[in-house]
Amino acid sequence: MVSYEMVKLSAEILEFLTITGAFYVLFRSRSLFKPAIGHNTLGYVFLGITIVWAGFLVNVLNEFFPTKPMKVLDDILVAIGVMILLMALLEGESKMKARAVPRPIGSGDPTVLRGFYLYDETKGVENLLLGLGGRKVLAVTRKPDLLKERNVPYIWITKLNVENGVPPTKLAPLLQYIVDKADENTVVLIDCVEYLIIENEFKAAFKFMTTLKDHLSSKGATLILIINRKTIDKRELALLEKEFRWLPAKV
């Protein structure tokens, strides 16, 4: 006959094994989360998960070594682990300070057709903005003062805790924010491609840009990467040119 104690022990062991398997999968996939929440936040997340895992382990051991300290220890470990997890996630969320929304720049008919482009920064951003007359624009930039002068809404890629500031490694929340704000009349400008590559390595930055392109394509929006040919590796530039075409000399 199956006793209550046997069922309880089996359930706790199964629970512990499930938690262990989930933890293992998360650990193996940690490189996928790093661009989204950053190295430091990811470390605290895994610290919290480890402590929670230890709490479930102690809960199983309680069935074999039922002492008073052990019965309290599992609850304490789980509570501490969940608290660390919550604090880490809240800290990561607090770094996303973007509030900018796309808005029309200038007036008249735009000369830039909808699509996905590379733009040579040596031509000057002023010429590009002139070609976007009447379209809603949102810029992702390392030059906030320059865009503020031209009344262009922007997200500042920075490690500072400032309004409209987003850390360079927060690619996933940045992507989601842009996609949520964009519509078919929106042009997204990114003038800090090289900086994103430096902070995230090319593979992660390229994935961010191509994924953003796919999402904006489904909305009928436009994406323009403002780059300097001389500052990007030739192989990396070739990959970008496969996904984006250069804007003509006259926009």
Explain what this protein looks like in three dimensions:
By secondary structure, the chain is an alpha/beta fold. It folds into two domains: 4-94, no CATH class; 103-246, 3-Layer(aba) Sandwich (Rossmann fold). It has helices spanning 4-28, 30-37, 39-61, 68-94, 125-130, 144-149, 171-181, 193-219, 234-243, and strands spanning 103-104, 116-120, 136-141, 154-157, 165-166, 186-190, 222-227, 245-246. Strands 1, 2, 3, 4, 5, 6, 7 and 8 form an eight-stranded mixed β-sheet that branches. Helix 8 (193-219) links the parallel strand 6 (186-190) and strand 7 (222-227). Helix 7 (171-181) runs parallel beside helix 8 (193-219). The chain is elongated, with a radius of gyration of 24 Å. The chain starts with a helix and ends in a 5-residue tail after the last strand.
Structure in a nutshell:
The chain has 251 residues and is α/β, with parallel strands linked by helices.
* Nearest-integer average pLDDT: 87
Q: What's the CATH architecture name of the largest domain?
A: 3-Layer(aba) Sandwich
Instruction: Count every beta strand, where a strand is a DSSP E run of 2 or more residues.
Output: 8
Overall shape: elongated
Beta-strand residue fraction = 5-15%
Radius of gyration: 24 Å
Relevant CATH superfamily of the largest domain = P-loop containing nucleotide triphosphate hydrolases
Structurally, the number of domains stands at 2
Major sheet size, sense and barrel closure: 8 strands, mixed
* Structural class by sheet pairing and helices: alpha/beta
CATH class of the largest domain: Alpha Beta
Helix content: 55-70%
- Helix and strand succession? HHHHEEHEHEEHEHEHE
Low-confidence runs of at least 5 consecutive residues: none
